[in-house]
Amino acid sequence: MKDGYYILLQKIEKFIKRYYFFKIVKGFLLFLSLVFVIVSLESIIEYYNYTSINFRTTLFYLSLIIFLFIISYYVIIPVLALFRIGKRISFKQASKIISNHFEHIDDNLINTIELGNNIKGNHNETDLLIASIEQRTKLLNPTQFKFSIPFKNLTKPFFYFLGSGFIILFILSFAPGVFRDGTYRIIDYGNYYEPNAPFKFILKNKSFFVQKGENFTLELIIDGDYIPNEVYISIGENSFLMIKNEKGNNLFNFTIKNLNNSIDIFFLADKYKSQKTRIEVLPAPILKDFIVELVPPPYTGVENSQFKNSGDLNIPFGSVVKWKFKTNFTDSVLLFFIDDSVNCSKNEKQFEYSRQLFKTGIYSVSIKNNHFTLNDNITYNINVIPDIYPDIDVHSIQDSNRISSFYYMLNVNDDYGFQKLTFNYRIIGNNNSKNFIKDVIELNKGNKNQDVFFYYDFSNINLVSENDYIEYFFEIFDNDYFSGYKSTKSTLNIYKPQSQKETKEEIDKLEKNTEKSIDESKKIVDDIQKDIEEFKRKELNNELSDWDRKSFLKNISKKQKELDKLLSNIKNENQKKNNLKNQLYSENEEILKKQKEIQEILDQIMDEELKQLLRELDELRSKLDQKDFEKLKEKLDLSYKNLNESLDKSLELLKRFQVEEKMQNLSEDFKKLSKRQENLSTEEYKKKDLENQKINQNSIKSNFNSLKEDFEETINKNKELKSPYKLEQLDDELSEIEKKLDDINNDIDKKSDKKINEQRKDASQSMEEMSKKLNNMLQQMNSQSMNMNLQDLRQITENLNLFSFNQEDIYNDLRITYSNDPKFVQLIKQQNNLNLDFEMIKDSLNSLASRIPQMNRMISKEVKDMEFSLGKTLFEFEARHRRASIRYQRNVINSSNILALYLEELNEQIQNQMSQGSSGKGKKQPGNAMKKLKQQQENLKQQLEQLLEQLKSCDGKNTGNQINEGVVKSLAEQEILNKMLNDLQQSDGLSPETIRKLKEIKNLSDKNIDDLINKNITTNLLKRNENIKTRLLEAEKSEREREKEKIRKSKEGRKAERELPAEIDSFLKKNNTYKETLQKNNLNFKNYYKNLSKKYYQGIK
Question: Are strands 272-273 and 305-308 parallel, antiparallel or unpaired?
């Protein structure tokens, strides 16, 4: 029962599927037939009637609804049922359909299905029901249920489909426009279609998008056999006549202004109208603002900057530029350069782009969105300021102290700074490298315009031959790393050192010029003295007017200017001569010392007192005061007299020193020549080159002749001295050397090689002996000179002491003698005789000073003070001015004591030099002077203690001469201390602490002098003296520390500072003035104008 029943159910299921399959096919055929019919009808209606948009819209959507309903009912629902989705027929309903088709089945199939359903719900009657079902199943199984739905049931729908399809094919064959136009217009229901006119409306506009607020011009072409005269455009409810283009009858245009909203338009012409066209108003891209950030290269030192809404750029080479654009309704921002264009990157708020720029150009900005592109009509300029090459300007000054050395002032400037500055040189000659050697010069790399000072001594470069020379130049590199540090070279210069012969000739010339300048100076001083004497004579005869006095002052001033110029030339020429000699010959300590001493004399030949008198002279020219004029005239006469004497001493010193120098140089030259001859005796002998030997030997002979002439000239110059040295002629020795040199040349001609070599050695030895003899003569000269100087010095010191005692006697006598006393006249005679004695002492001092350079500095001022005070003493004596005469006598005593002290010190120095046998040992040092100051302080202390004891012993009673004599002696000692203090303060090399202590001592000493003059004799004098001692000890300690520091620094090789030449110093001052002016004005120039101002200044300075 079970298998049969299920088989029956399966057959019914197959029937159901066939049922729905046939239903689907039938529904699809009916759907297609209906679609063909409806579409054909609608297309025909639209094709011939040009229905409205609303009608076509309704027709389209109604048709779409019908089609959806039919396909849903006839196709989609059966398909779902086929796949058991949704509602479908039951087995019972299927049984009825099958029973209706097969009459022999009748109700058996339905009953069987019902019995099967009952078995599922009633388990008690199962056996009986099963038996009944089995019986019925056997009767139904042979029947094929699928044939209950035959294919003929699809005949009618198929014919419907064929009929409707035939209609479609017929229309397509005979009226294809029905579907092409009618169907298309139904589908395009949103557009208006007019019946075909005899012409067409054709819009030339390719885009119908317009920026908001902009005008939009429509360009219409009428195409067809017939062209209407008037065409209207319909906008909303209004129509406007379009303008006919003059270039063609079928061209029309119309401009719609200030469009702010989208609109629909169509065209009308002779009752025909076009389809609607929509003009869309869209927002245009907007550039709100933009910022340009400039980042110059770091090496330029230019600060970063930012500009808003300003696109023109002036930027340094290699700067990074960053653009930032703020926009609205913008999709992209483009930058157009000369060579390319770039699209800016977009972030949340703005568009950005950065680029490093190296060349000048232009650029423009364009912004756009999906509809519009907005091109900025403004073209911006990019001015890339190139990094110019550095500039170098070289000024050179030869060192007046050393002809092989030069000062260079290098003015270097660049727009941004420097990388390095080099000095480049090479030696030009045989077997020398062509490559330049570079020395780096320090400079401030960040200073764009600076003066660099460079000192170079070309003698440090070893030149092998006299024909060799040096090429050199300076090279400045800027800091432009983009271009590999650009450089500029200065002009190529050449340095060729002077030959020995040229140097000697220049030295001789300078010596003659110096002597000539001194002679001319003496003549001018003589003329001034004559003018003063003539002035005195006229004054005595009352032959002077105010104009004569002014004329006299003017004349003195004029001649003084000439004298100043000559004295300056004397100093400079002597210094230059010394420098040349020091370069030509090896340094000798004694020679250098004398050079320095003589140069100091020449530098100080115009003392401060005379300079002060000349300044007062200039003041008197504006206001002529008779009293001041008389005082000035006396001092002026005496000062010029002393100047004349100083010139005489200086000239004599120069001549004596020239003799000493020449002897020293001759000794050195003969030694060099001996060495050269010795070298020839070994080198040339090996070479066997007789021709070359002869050339070299002739050169030696020529040098010997020059030395012989120099020796003869030295002998003659020595004879011109006031106190000549004892020099031997050495004619025999010179003749012997000359003969040996001639023999060598003769043997070279005879080609006697072995003999020549022996003769050269012999000649070399003779020259060596000549050098030693000259050196011995020089030593003897110095020794004899020192002995003679020492004898003269002792005699002068003795005479000076005698003079001082005599002056002190007159002084003491005068203090107790009144002007009406007959003894007064006797004192005048004694003073007059004493003045004559001093003239002799002065002449002796001047004579000695012309042989001892350091004496000039020591005695000049004191001699002049004594001479002035002696003259005033005698004048006041004769005028019976007792007190004034006493005052001047006291000055004479003080000056004579100081002078005697100086001479004792000089005596000690000379003795030290003689005993130690070397120069420089007796040089006056601050330490020695400090010891003498301490000794003088002790002497003063003893004198003051004696004075106070005298006062105590007399119980305040007036003791007259005894007390006065003590006061005078104390004053003299105190004055000597003051003089020593002044001299020590003028010494070189004192430490600041020592100078401060000496000033304190000077103040204490001045207070003691005031108390002594006022006879205020108290214990304060001793207290101050103790304070002076304390300060002296502190000053001495400070000097010891300074000396230790000086030694330490000298060991470290500290270089001496060089004084800049006057030309460079003047140039520097002008340059500094220019820079200071710019700084004061604080001109905020751009780089371009700063560079212009620098170039302008360099052109005028």
Answer: unpaired
